Amino acid sequence: MNSLMLFAAGTCTSGGCPFGKCPPHAIVAVAGALIVGYVIGFLVGRRSAAKGGAKKPSQPQQKKQAPVRRDPRPVTSRPPIPAGSVELYVGNLSYDMTEDQLRQTFEAFGKVDSVRVVTNRYNNKSKGFAFVVIRQGSHGPSDARERGPEHEQGGSLTYAMRHLFLYGPPGSGKSTIGRLLAARLALPFTDLDAVIVETDGRPIPQIFAEEGEPGFRAREKQALADMSARPRHVVALGGGALLNPECRALAEASGEVLCLACTLETLCRRIDNAPGSRPLAGGHAALEKLMANRAAHYASFPRRLDVTNGTPETLAEAAETLFGAWRIDSGDVPSRVFAGRNLIAGLGEEAAALGLGKRAVV
pLDDT at position 99, please? Predict the structure, then answer.
């Protein structure tokens, strides 16, 4: 702009003005206009630059908060759980299931104290879960028919508290499989013959020699009765421990019995590896006679496992399946899994037996 101003002044004074000769006052007016324009432009530019440098950062726009909707229903505290009952959290329900339908469903398995389907606070529609308070140890009228033979024999003991008895002929591997099974389930193991020896202070062959089989069976019956009153164990029974109907009824009332089956040839081979440890199976002929006499007895147990082939580890795994009991190590907390017919009939007792307290999630 300065060069333009000088050019205009110079050409006019030198007589080279392209517009002809201009009077002196015109030259002064042009120069003054140029100077004023320059000053104004300079001041405006500085003001714009100052505003741009001091520009404050833009604040993020805050979303408007939606008004809080208040539940029009009155606030009520959850009712206390009656003594002898547990509260079950039942999920994955059909959204159209009513409390009456849920009550009818659970009344088939026991005494229901209360049912509460959780609903949405705004439209009163079901959220798909409910709380059911059920009485412990109160099975429905069809309990004996619905729960199956293994639970008919089991009385009021819950499945989580019932012993796991391994039974079968001498040499079938009851103690070996039992120890592995107990380790898999994280349960204590008991060999009933070892308990008799520890209690009496004499080895089993000596008891047979001094008192005969009746003396040994009396001690065996007492040991079984004491074992039945204890918390859940994996128990290896003697080869003839359940020949007495009273002993069999006691075992089936306090636990599940798995009878191991094996061929005579395999039993003979195993007994040869531990001579003198089994008084009633001292030789092949004695063992063959014993198996012939007890064949019908062993076959009368509905839960059986053939142990002729397979490693002890695979047989212990098969025993888990037949007992319907597993322990799964997934994450920080291991889980115990039970499978059986109509176990929901004793769901309240199961929750209490596992130490879940007054409330449990199902």
Answer: 83
Helix, strand, or coil (residue 68): coil
Residues 197-220 as b/e (b if ≥16 CB within 10 A, e otherwise) read: beebeeebeebeeeeeeeebbebb
How far apart (Å, rounded) are the C-alpha atoms in residues 282 and 279? Answer: 6
Contact 256, 185 (CB under 8 A): no
Average pLDDT, the chain: 75
Reduced to 3 states (helix: H, G, I; strand: E, B; else coil), residue 193 is helix
> Over the stretch 53-89, which tens digit does the pLDDT of each residue have?
555 555 666 666 656 555 555 555 566 777 767 777 7
Is residue 118 within 8 A of residue 90, CB to CB? The reply is no
Look at the alpha carbons of 205, 210, 214, 217 in this order and tell me if their dihedral is positive or negative. Answer: negative
The reported pLDDT for the residue numbered 223 is 96
Q: What is the pLDDT of residue 106?
A: 72
CA distance 176 to 156: 30
Element (H, E) at 322: helix 312-323
Encoded tokens for 25: 């006052």
Structure confidence by residue, pLDDT tens digits, 296-306: 999 999 999 99
- For residue 269, the SS3 value is helix
pTM for this predicted structure: 0.56
- Is there a contact between 168 and 262 (Cβ–Cβ < 8 Å)? yes
Angstrom distance (rounded) from CA 119 to CA 129: 9
What CA–CA distances, in Å, run from 208 to 136, 167, 179, 261, 279?
45, 20, 26, 25, 7
Q: What is the largest CA-CA distance in the chain?
A: 156
Strands (DSSP E) contained in 71-157 are: 85-90, 112-119, 126-135
Alpha carbons 130 and 149: distance in angstroms, whole number: 32
Pull the structure tokens for residue 353. 């037996």
Q: What confidence category does residue 260 fall into, taking pLDDT thresholds of 50, 70 and 90?
A: very high
